[in-house]
Specification:
The protein has helices spanning 24-34, 44-49, 59-64, 73-77; strands spanning 14-16, 20-21, 81-91, 100-113, 116-127, 132-143. The protein is α+β, with helices and mostly antiparallel strands and 145 residues long. Strands 1, 2, 3, 4, 5 and 6 form a six-stranded antiparallel β-sheet that branches. Residues 11-126 form the MaoC-like domain. This is MaoC family dehydratase. InterPro entries: HotDog_dom_sf, MaoC-like_dom, MCH/BMMD. It holds the Pfam family MaoC_dehydratas.
Length: 145
């Protein structure tokens, strides 16, 4: 597909990522890479004793599913991407092994900055029950021309 420019993007456009069903292997791999060894992430008995129904998937692992490259967004914009400027998020519900996640980025703002432009997106992840488990915002810097 031909790459779109900053001027071609529209507020309200949605870029979805493929759904992902998390497994214990995914959680273990992230634990290895992140070195986050808190027992809430792997010890079922510890998690239950502390009010969780099961070990909780790492929040940063869930957040990673909102990466622009996990969606079709980079394929639409081609070579105009300069940088990922900032992000924020709120974790709204626990995610456990076996949950299927549905990430999406929705353009909420387009701000011109000289020869460049900032794309603001709402980053969301819903689970298989339609519950919003993560809500946040990303900002990307793109070349305008």
């Amino acid at each position: 597909m031909p790459a779109r420019t900053f001027e071609d993007l529209r507020v309200g456009e949605v870029f979805r990522a493929p759904s992902r069903t998390l497994t214990d292997a995914h959680a273990a791999a992230f634990q290895t890479v992140s070195a986050d060894n808190h027992p809430v992430h792997y010890d079922a008995e510890w998690a239950r004793r502390h009010g969780h129904s099961a070990p909780v998937v790492h929040g940063l692992q869930v957040l990673a599913f909102t990466a622009p490259g996990a969606t079709l967004f980079p394929h639409f914009i081609g070579e105009v991407f300069i940088s990922f400027l900032e992000l924020s998020c709120t974790f709204l519900a626990e995610v456990h092994s076996g949950d299927t996640l549905y990430p999406a980025l929705t353009i909420t703002g387009l701000e011109r900055q000289g020869d460049d432009g900032v794309v603001v997106t709402a980053a969301t992840i819903h689970n298989q029950r339609g519950e919003l488990v993560l809500s946040g915002q990303h900002k990307y810097l793109l070349r305008r021309q």
